[in-house]
């Protein structure tokens, strides 16, 4: 009997598939790209089987110091809940799998959630569709039948900006020290998730079997994720929570933001995070686009509600001139001057934010906020 093999029944006989190392890292990467189901599996706190849609191999990631891509992620997938899944692949024989790969992945994730514009993800999937002689709609229909494309991308956008991503270290074998790091990170991080997948290969003649094993789903990690998931927010629950942590003036601003979307926008996109979050979506050049995100923060007296402008995503649709004009309105707000300067210097790849408390009691500042929004969506 072999402890390192799989017996495959072929007719009336058994054929032994022996564990075989991958010829190269590229072969392992090809296996993941062509058969993402082998690393999909359950999430930390979920019992269902998550599906994965490949967006791109060798996905570029920019950094704070440069709008150009300075990193290259092995694989970017999106799961059926719209969660971006970042995958780094290494063979056990690669010495970088011990520690260097951890810093590499955290670099990618930290920059991706801030500097990836949604349009880049959409364009990457469109390029893949073209290469396969398909449309994006066909890929999405195969992946999640009956889905609405814009709704799907709104989910992706909300997850990305809230830091709800999954990082997966994939290898033919994961060293014990890396397994412990994965477990530690997954127990500490929220809403981000960190998992490892050992994908062993077994062969006999033309037969190939992939046997995945997931690490990082500790009881502590599952409890941490479940306790922080909370309920999906809606208008009533958001307002109820905001009233416990915002002033009367801040609540007036929040209600005015909601009313503006009701009158001029397409929808309020509610978050699923621990803190109350919502995005304001408007039609820009004929397409629904997230313009701002509002978060009421925690109920701690040391935290404050804040509003974020999605310049980094919007600029790809409006062009820099319109963003510059909108930003000039916000520069009238004292607390925004330096942030707008930084965003302008980055060619509008940043996401300037303001605390509601800094503007809510000043009518001129509130007017500047809505003038900026109007400039963007006109």
What attributes does this structure have?
378 residues, alpha+beta, eight-stranded mixed beta sheet, 43% helix
List the SSEs and their pairings.
Layout: E1 5-10, E2 13-19, H1 25-34, H2 37-40, E3 52-63, E4 66-79, E5 84-89, H3 100-115, H4 118-131, H5 136-143, H6 149-161, E6 166-171, H7 176-188, E7 193-204, E8 207-215, H8 219-229, H9 235-243, H10 248-264, E9 267-270, E10 277-284, E11 287-295, E12 306-309, H11 311-318, H12 320-330, H13 337-345, E13 353-355, H14 356-359, H15 363-377
Parallel strand pairs: 5-6, 6-7
Antiparallel strand pairs: 1-2, 2-7, 3-4, 4-5, 7-8, 9-10, 10-11, 11-12, 12-13
Quaternary? single chain
Query: Helical amount among residues, as a percent range?
Result: 40-55%
Question: Between the first and last Cα atoms, what is the distance in angstroms?
Answer: 72 Å
Number of helices: 15
State which percent range the strand residues make up: 25-35%
As residue ranges, the low-confidence spans are none
Structural class: alpha+beta
Let me know the largest β-sheet: 8 strands, mixed
Shape: elongated
Order of secondary-structure elements: EEHHEEEHHHHEHEEHHHEEEEHHHEHH
- In total, the number of strands is 13
Mean pLDDT: 85
Specify Rg, calculated over alpha carbons. Answer: 23 Å
Describe the structure.
The chain is built from 15 helices and 13 strands. The chain has helices at residues 25-34, 37-40, 100-115, 118-131, 136-143, 149-161, 176-188, 219-229, 235-243, 248-264, 311-318, 320-330, 337-345, 356-359, 363-377, and strands at 5-10, 13-19, 52-63, 66-79, 84-89, 166-171, 193-204, 207-215, 267-270, 277-284, 287-295, 306-309, 353-355. β7 and β8 (207-215) form a beta hairpin. 36% of the residues are buried.
């Amino acid at each position: 009997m072999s402890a390192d093999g799989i017996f495959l029944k072929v007719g009336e006989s058994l054929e032994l598939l022996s564990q075989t190392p991958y010829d190269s890292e590229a072969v392992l990467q090809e296996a993941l790209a062509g058969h993402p189901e082998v690393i999909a599996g359950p999430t930390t706190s979920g019992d269902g089987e998550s599906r994965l849609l490949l967006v791109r191999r060798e996905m570029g990631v920019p950094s704070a110091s440069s709008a150009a891509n300075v990193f290259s992620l092995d694989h970017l997938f999106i799961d059926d809940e719209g969660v971006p899944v970042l995958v780094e692949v290494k063979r056990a024989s690669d010495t970088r799998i011990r520690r260097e790969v951890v810093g590499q992945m955290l670099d990618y994730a930290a920059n991706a959630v801030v500097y990836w514009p949604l349009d880049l993800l959409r364009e990457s999937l469109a390029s893949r569709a073209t290469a396969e002689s398909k449309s994006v709609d066909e890929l999405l229909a195969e992946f999640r039948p009956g889905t609405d494309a814009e709704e799907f991308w709104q989910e992706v956008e909300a997850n990305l900006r809230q830091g709800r991503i999954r990082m997966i270290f994939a290898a033919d074998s994961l060293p014990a020290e890396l397994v412990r790091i994965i477990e530690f990170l997954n127990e500490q991080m929220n809403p981000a998730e960190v998992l490892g997948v050992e994908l062993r290969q077994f062969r006999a003649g033309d037969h190939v079997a992939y046997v995945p094993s997931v690490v990082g789903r500790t009881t502590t990690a599952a409890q941490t994720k479940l306790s922080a998931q909370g309920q999906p927010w809606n208008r009533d629950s958001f307002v109820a929570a905001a009233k416990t942590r915002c002033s009367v003036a801040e609540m007036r601003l929040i209600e005015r933001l909601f009313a503006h979307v009701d009158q001029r926008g397409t929808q309020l996109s509610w978050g699923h995070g621990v803190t109350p979050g919502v995005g304001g979506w408007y039609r820009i050049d004929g397409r629904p686009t997230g313009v701002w995100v509002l978060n009421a923060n925690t109920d701690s007296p040391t935290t404050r509600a804040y509003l974020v402008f999605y310049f980094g995503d919007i600029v790809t649709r409006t062009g820099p001139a319109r963003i510059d004009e909108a930003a000039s309105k916000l520069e009238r707000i004292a607390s925004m001057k330096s942030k707008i300067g930084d965003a302008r210097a980055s060619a509008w790849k940043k996401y300037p934010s303001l605390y509601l408390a800094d503007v809510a009691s000043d009518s001129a500042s509130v007017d500047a906020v809505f003038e900026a929004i109007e400039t963007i969506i006109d």
